[in-house]
Amino acid sequence: MEQASPVRSYLEQTANPNNVLVNIGPSHPATHGTIQIIAELEGETVRSADVHCGYLHRGFEKSAEHHPYHKIIPYTDRLNYCSSLNNNFAFAGAVERLLGIEITPRCKYLRTLLSEYNRLADHVTCIAATVMEMGAMTAFLYLMTIRDYIFEHLNHLTGARLTYSYVRIGGLARDLPEEWLKRLEEILLFYERYIERIHGLLDRNRIFIDRTRDVGVMTQEQALHWGFTGPILRSTGLACDLRKDIPYLAYPELDFEVPVGIKGDNYDRYYVRMREMDESVSMIRQCMLRLPSGPVSVNDPRVTLPSKEQVYTRTEALINHFKLIIDGIQVPAGEIYLAHEAPNGELGFYLVSDGSERPYKLHVRSPSFAHMGGMHTLLEGYQVADIIATFGSMNMIGGECDR
Amino acid sequence: MAMNTRILKELYESSEENFGITVLKLKGEDLLPLVTLLKDECGFDLLLDVTAVDYPDCELRFEVVYHLYSSRHNRRLRLKVPVPESCPAVPTLTGLYGSACYAERETHEMYGIEFSGNGDLRPILLYEGFDGHPLRKDYPIDGEQPIVAYRK
Question: Which residues in chain A have their CB less than 8 angstroms from residue B127's CB?
């Protein structure tokens, strides 16, 4: 049976007979994500590019409408799978605000700490993949070593290396294991030693600068026009960061800076991420110092399971446990849009509830999707080889983009 | 600015606050003038998101939802445009915001909303030949597609 092409590009033939059409992806070794770029080339220069995503679409929003709230948490892991905790916390935050739940101080600090920790892992992955595609294998291995330490460490806490599902509506799955913070400090010291080597390898590296400086340049107006957020928007010089603009979790109590770039090219995007990682480390240390004691989950019968001891001895607790497992959490009718600063930019959950145990609608405003919508402007006018460097610096994550 | 506020007020039907976001409800024909004014005069320079909500029992079945952000004033806005099933069309915002291109393509394929004036409504997350609009409430979660066999 003949299969029709799943995409219909507006670039079917070139206006200029000397130009050629090249199809890159969706499965290409140098695009770490399933994306297809159909490019019109004049010699080595990209004249126009048609970017297609959707190869990793798995109907997150439709599935969410058919699942109780706490069963959606594992789905949110798979949005940006390099920083699942950030997705977890943003989703839980939206549900909690609609329920009117105030999380405990310890939970607030732990969520902040883990958000920054996962941001660190995400940025490390992004830079590692980008430089590896440009041939910098040493830097890649150093960065992957840091990332692996972080993943192993998070594995100790959550039981998984990537898809943590660590959040619960109203708190967290469990408190920190013993010695976890001690190991965290060791890893942060390790990070500092290794990141110094990355600075030494890349910052003034002639090859790296040639591949990234003045490549994929974008102005502030352009970035806003195409809906860019996060490090990409900040690399153009606009200090737009949700952690400062609408402070959530423990961010208003922390001392941190918002690094910005100068001209929004690949090098700026690299450097903004490098600086942001240092800020994250500083924030993690502040959280460790100030970490309050107490429970990690609220004691609210609407969302938290009663203790096993109570379930076995008290009828009300038994009924409460049963209702929570069978019926799920009942969220009052209403709607909310809640956004967190995910490593890639504004990750927003638009949740509409009709008062039942399932969302009436759950829409994800994913940063990668918006970034892919405007990526062609960063490719056009540059060389074919620059596609890889620019695409790497965008940090497109298929799971989040295609949902 | 005072005059503009008056013009603004004529362009929407109701307004309310929702968790720090101002929500405006308006008619489809007022969308373009309102958003133009918001962008040019009020500094709403970032169109974050376009989506829709399906209410099958309502007379106006779909509600197209826009989220806007002003980086200068750090303000957020949600616009809601109810449209009927018989004519689910709103004007496109691609002339004002580039980010509307992808977002409108997604809303078009998921809900079947027509964005009049947008010439590029090709599928983006789905594929050519996908039958129906999967996020509509009457699309079953295990709905089968003609060109992709159902895996048992």
Answer: 6-7, 54
Residue pair A131/A141 in contact by the 8 Å Cβ criterion: no
Pairing of strands A171-172, A167-168: antiparallel
A6 touches chain B (CB under 8 A): yes
CB atoms within 10 A of CB A308: 10
Q: Which residues pair with A37 in a beta bridge?
A: A24, A51
CA nearest neighbour of A394 among A220, A277, A233: A233
Is the pTM for the entire model greater than 0.95? Answer: no
- A402/B48 Cβ within 8 A: no
pLDDT tens by residue, A218-251: 999 999 999 999 999 999 998 889 998 888 888 9
- For chain A, which domains are there? 10-52 (no CATH), 60-401 (1.10.645.10)
**Amino acid letter, A18:** N
ω before A68 within 30° of 0 (cis)?
no
Which among A350, A366, A378 is the top mutation candidate for probing chain B, defined by the most B β-carbons within 10 Å of its own β-carbon? A350
| CB within 8 Å: B45 and A224 | yes
Mean of the pLDDT values across residues A18-23? 85
Q: How far is CA A176 from the centre of its chain?
A: 23
The domains found in chain B, sorted by start residue, are 5-116 (3.30.460.80)
Return the DSSP state at A105: H
For residue A9, the 8-state DSSP code is: -
Kindly state the tokens that stand for A62: 């439709």
Using a CB–CB cutoff of 8 Å, tell me whether A378 touches chain B. Answer: no
